[in-house]
Amino acid sequence: MANVSVYNTDGKEVGTIELNDAVFGVELNEHLVHMAVVAQLANKRQGTQKAKTRSEVSGGGRKPWRQKGTGHARQGSTRSPQWKGGGVVFAPTPRDYTITLNKKEKRQALRCALSSRVQEQKFIVLESFELSEVKTKKMAETLKNLKVQKALVVAPENDKTTVLSARNIAGVKTASPKTINVYDILKYNTVVTSKDVVATIEEVYA
């Protein structure tokens, strides 16, 4: 099992914690992680874009001029794509972008992402967040003491104090153990959490 240092809010090491290899020590499967990120981004898309093709634009039923003898190129409709007000070539239509992954694949991709952060020493564990009130300044100081700029802060479930304290800091996003995802873990350089949250993550994803 991997051992990770535990820090206090001043950025000083106060101990170590043993991580469960079933969650934080799995072998990296890049293809599976890539699939999970692609699926997440695709599933965010609304797929409601729409433009009209030449058959859907109103008007243009009459031939604008006779076929021959005018000196113009031949035209069959004023709603052809080359005309102003004409239809769009290969116009986008509403579609469903959903990509489905199996539950086991999703969980394993998440384990891979967490394990990669541990291996890269970008998984920081705090003894606790120690926030008695909503204070952005206090949270910013804690992250500065940990020498972290772009971070995913994984706070305990329903911990509004930590969430509200971190939400106005640039480059910082908060999540709970049950809402973390592969894309956010990879997007933000460092994962910052606490000992009790680590125990919850191991319980949920082991």
TrEMBL record:
Residues 43-87 are annotated as: Disordered. SUPFAM superfamilies: Ribosomal protein L4. Signal peptide: none annotated. The keyword Ribosomal protein applies. The keyword ATP-binding does not apply. GO terms for cellular component: ribonucleoprotein complex; ribosome. It comes from the Bacteria. It holds the Pfam family Ribosomal_L4. GO terms for biological process: translation. One of its GO terms (molecular function) is rRNA binding. Keywords: Ribonucleoprotein, Ribosomal protein, RNA-binding, rRNA-binding. Belongs to the universal ribosomal protein uL4 family. PANTHER family: 50S RIBOSOMAL PROTEIN L4, LARGE RIBOSOMAL SUBUNIT PROTEIN UL4M. Part of the 50S ribosomal subunit. Forms part of the polypeptide exit tunnel. This is Large ribosomal subunit protein uL4. It comes from Stomatobaculum longum.
